[in-house]
Amino acid sequence: MTPTNTSLAETTQTGAAPLAAGFADPVHDAQGCFRAVMNAMARPATRQLIPAGGLKPPAPLTPVAAAIALTLIDYDTPVWLDKPLMSSEAVKQFLRFHTGAPIVSEPVEAAFALVSAPESMIPLASFNQGSLEYPDRSTTVILLGQTFSAGPAVMLEGPGIKDTALLTTGPVPPVFWDQVIANNRQFPRGIDLIFAGASEAAALPRSTRITPQEA
Amino acid sequence: MNDTAQIYDQGEYNFAYLDEQTKRMIRRAILKGIAIPGYQVPFASREMPMPYGWGTGGVQVTAAILGQDDCLKMIDQGSDDTTNAVSLRGFFEKTAGIRTTYETSEATVIQTRHRIPEKPLTEDQVLVFQVPIPEPLRFLEPRETETRKMHALEDYGLMHVKLYEDIAKNGHIATTYAYPVKVNDRYVMDPSPTPKFDNPKIDRMAALQLYGAGREKRIYAIPPYTKVKSLDFEDYPFEVQTFDKPCGLCGAENVYLDEVILDDKGGRMFVCSDSDHCEERRADGHLGPMAASPEAGQFGGQNAQETAR
Amino acid sequence: MYVAVKGGEKAIRNAHKLTAKRRRGDTSVPALTLDQIAEQLSHSVARVMGEGSLYDEGLAALAIKQARGDLIEAAFLMRAYRTTLPRFGYSLAVDTGAMLVERRVSATYKDLPGGQVLGPTFDYSHRLLDFALAAEDDGTEPEVETAEPRETAMPRVTDLLGDEGLMEPDPVTDEDTPVGDLTREPLSFPADRDLRLQNLARGDEGFLLALAYSTQRGYGRTHPFAGEIRYGEVEVEFFAEELGFAVTLGTIKVTECQMVNQFKGSAKAAPTFTRGYGLVFGQVERKAMSMAMVDRSLRWQELGEEQTAPAQDVEFVLSHSDNIQATGFVEHLKLPHYVDFQAELGLVRQMRAEWFEKRRQEEEETEAGSAAQEAAE
């Protein structure tokens, strides 16, 4: 049985730390954020402004990542957190209260994964890749703290891209782009990536073909 | 308090009717659809206050993406003024209070049934299709358990056999609407029952295309600039419908026309199916033969067989 | 000059006004009250609650009134309302063994603990129009005998059989695999029995009736006996997390049918009786029985039987049982299809032209051939 947010509110409010607020305007903030994420996914390499609705989530969760989480995650979507996020009670409390999502310890069980320390992230292959019959049942991985000027550029081709496009984002681990290339090769299976920056987000669906550029 | 309870406290329906949990579920399906172009994502389609088959899929997709600043165009058969387009537009005016328009270029979201506007769409627009039967293989194999395997294995032999049998029997492919396409060289997809005339428009379209099938509980998508190929054979290449005459009202050529019966003696005329396109052209001073004189563009009953194609 | 058709908006508005007028009918006749519908058309109300998948007699009565007695339309109104309701959780499974029984019949035992209770039923009535009903109702209550409340429990027939090992046991509840809910997750195949039963419970009475009937006529025979049909009130309980115990939310009336079917046994399982299960809101015995029969038919794979008939075809049955979906799609053919029809018009004209051309050529060839033959002769 799924507990309602009402009962959660009662239990969490007895806790010590005050809980950071969610969207000021849940309906329209979530809609604005979704359209930005949708455009990012539909147009890989473009950067979309994420209206974070004045969110001040507990670190290391960031406002943009929190906005995306509140927009897409709920009690139907198990969430996996990387170590720094997982070890923050405040982060878990924030996500549980505002989304009701079950937090899972196995990346393969996750519908969404939040990665706050991307440079040391686990391999993309650890997440749920979906099946050939149900490729939609895969994990969407959200990388936090991205800067869109750092790191080597990669060239993108595929759906959503007119000819080719360049994406520069980081930090990511050194083997990251090889993993993304391998991810694309198993299309239609594979994970989808969202890069959450300080105010913007970009996305890389599994359908995008990647060519690393010389630095 | 959860979203829905909040809505009920306010004593009315949520913005764009759907509750927030439902919107999230649909939004997730839309993202998956975009990431896997042409793949039909199952989603927990809700019962809507209009019947299944009357646009519930398109309405759910539109409701999930629509924001306060959007401007919505709603068309059915290419026209803003057909009964169900009027009804669905009214639904969003009532539940979302957003701006609506008849003008293709003014709209940010266009929901359609059976047509794609003649005017090329832009990157800033989203085209939402109402889909009755999302499965392109359905009439070759009605079982979802089987068609799912075929999509998984990219086994589209059955479809090619069907098209080839058409050619063997008729000398050409006898499919005129819902003409199957292959998206991004991977999934065979039903472009919804648009006439095949519109198929070239969905290839590398600048706008994002979202397809919603409410009764069948599927959402799929074609991202902008995605390669969409209408299935054909080297010696029998894909062709669209052509019309002998221009639009009777605005004189447009190379557009899709509706045949209008004028009397019981075989009198008929052809007019633009895209009513906004037609009006805009007439406002710009283009006049078709029927607009000038009722008899000029009308072809009589005896010649009726020559009129189409 | 020809003007493109306009005025959809006005036409719709006027059509709705006319519908409202027709719904009310002759205003010299008093309007129906919801109480009248709920009290006097209780079978209609029950059907609308079941197929509308929402237990509320008052709303069902309103839906029937609004739909002018069109029960599928009424069920649709209920579904569309239901989907907007906040969802606080799932109730516990109702205990039909603890039902406050108003009617209970078994076709398999002459007598049994708790006895046979005929209760309110059309059974054994002579279907003669009762012209007395046509006269004004004077409000006197029909006379009924009252009996003392039963002291003894009324165990379900299937539980009695189970004690002897003759009946397959109830499926074991597994806390870790929650019961599916096809209003939250789209139906996918293969569908387990929980989803199948949910689908059938919401399904169209007529569709299930026809399928059940087809199994009796040999299209996938299941040898059913009406082990038990019971109708009455059950409590609905909800486990409140914050209280730590279950609270009763209220009572609902349901009809439960357990069909007892023969099973020859297999290499793995000894011969035993198996069952089909039906449970519906209100007193809708025809649907409960049909549902139980179809449920049993759909279990062919699990029981190692052969699939030969439509009623056994899980995907076929579950995909077509929902009358809200079915009526929507059938009736959508009323919507404009000018564009597709235009495309088909073009194609049929082309194919006709090709057909005539081909025939003309063939005739020419034949003529030429016979002319050549004549010339040769």
Automatic annotation (TrEMBL), chain A:
Superkingdom field: Bacteria
One Pfam family from the record: PhnH
Keywords attached to this entry: Lyase
Keyword Calcium among UniProt keywords: no
Matching Gene3D superfamilies: Bacterial phosphonate metabolism protein PhnH (3.40.50.11310)
GO molecular function terms noted in the UniProt entry: lyase activity
NCBIfam families listed in its UniProt record: PhnH_redo
Name listed for the protein in its UniProt record: Phosphonate C-P lyase system protein PhnH
Organism of derivation: Roseibium sediminicola
Encoding gene (name): phnH
TrEMBL record, chain B:
Start and end residues of each stretch annotated as Disordered: 284-309
Reactions this protein catalyses: alpha-D-ribose 1-methylphosphonate 5-phosphate + AH2 + S-adenosyl-L-methionine = alpha-D-ribose 1,2-cyclic phosphate 5-phosphate + methane + 5'-deoxyadenosine + L-methionine + A + H(+)
Enzyme Commission number: 4.7.1.1
UniProt KW Iron keyword: yes
Statement: the UniProt record of this protein carries the keyword S-adenosyl-L-methionine: yes
Pfam family, one: PhnJ
UniProt KW keywords: 4Fe-4S, Iron, Iron-sulfur, Lyase, Metal-binding, S-adenosyl-L-methionine
Function comment: Catalyzes the breakage of the C-P bond in alpha-D-ribose 1-methylphosphonate 5-phosphate (PRPn) forming alpha-D-ribose.
Family: Belongs to the PhnJ family.
UniProt-recorded name of the protein: Alpha-D-ribose 1-methylphosphonate 5-phosphate C-P lyase
Biological source species: Roseibium sediminicola
Automatic annotation (TrEMBL), chain C:
Residue ranges of the region described as Disordered: 162-185
Record keywords, A-Z: Lyase
Acidic residues bias (residue ranges): 162-178
Statement: the UniProt record of this protein carries the keyword Lyase: yes
UniProt cross-references to Pfam families, sorted A to Z: PhnI
Molecular function via GO: lyase activity
Highest taxon listed in the record's lineage: Bacteria
UniProt name for this protein: Carbon-phosphorus lyase complex subunit PhnI
